[in-house]
Amino acid sequence: MIDFLEGVKEWLVGFFGLPALLKLLQTNDYSQFMSWNGISALMGPLIPFLLVFEIIRMAFYRRFKVVDYRISFFSLVINSFIGRIISIGMVSICIGLFGRYAIFKTEITWYWLIYGYVIWEFGHFIYHFLAHKVRLFWCLHSTHHAPETMNLSVNFAHFFLEAPYADLIRTTTCILLGVSPALLFLIMFIDGFWGSFIHIGENISKDGRFGFLNKIILTPSHHRVHHAKNALYMDTNFCNLLPIWDHVFKTYQEEDKTVKIEYGITREMKKHSFLDAYFGEIVLLAKDVWRAPGIKNKFLYIFMPPGWSHTKDHKTAKIVRSEYLKNYKPEMANS
Known about the structure:
GO terms for molecular function: glyceryl-ether monooxygenase activity; iron ion binding. Residues 114-251 form the Fatty acid hydroxylase domain. It is found in: Endomembrane system. This protein has 335 residues and is an all-alpha fold. The protein has a domain at 45-248. Helices cover 59% and strands 0% of the residues. It contains 16 helices and no strands. Helix 2 (19-27) packs across helix 3, helix 7 packs across helix 9 (162-176) and helix 13 (274-291) runs antiparallel to helix 14. It is globular and about 65 Å long.
């Protein structure tokens, strides 16, 4: 029993990002908080504590529902033991394999940080775009879109193989284009914090636009749009902090306050089912491949976008959104 309680204690300390902070506090050398290690130790616990604050606030206003956190909780448990280890290994492998082929080497300076972040966002865009446009990769990514509410716990709702797949693309892109490992880890830390923070729901920030920042960076409002299943919002806002590549590839979409966001995925799911959220898309893909006539159609089901059909009755996000936009008048909706 004591060993179990100790294990729970260690898990909680790790979940709240406290080990690095406690280690620094034990030194009694508070000047270390002015260093990069100190800053990262201070920022580490922010997202977990914001999540707890969010839950407490929802409970106070009697809006807290355990089922809204079920998918995220079970995903966190699985990924804590499997996904994180594989992801770290993938980053290391990519650095070792592709570092020698880098076109040049960068250093940690403000201008290389800007360059590195633009490149990181490019890699992130590629991974994220493919996760929505290739059905096999959507099977890995759909778990993150399955929750039907937006809150900080959604940040933990991921299939365990998604992080290694994402890191394969993002890390390789950065390393080949000259982002040094040291700079890459700095960018990963910044991106990890912001990528978690933009999942805050209406219970913490109702509007989520953050004033003028909404025109410069991607805010929680933008990411709520990304998680929406509304036709207007499908497959938009793939970047994480800088929307540069969404503008370049025409996938940028502002939130229209007249179009209420509906979270989740478009197929009918078993309500609040972790198993359906985690494995449902894989099962459906396997069924489509099994039933598809001919080898060509079987391969197409794997690599074409979700909604593609060998019967030509396609219901891909691109088609659904295009049909919606024919009658959508944003100037009237936002007037």
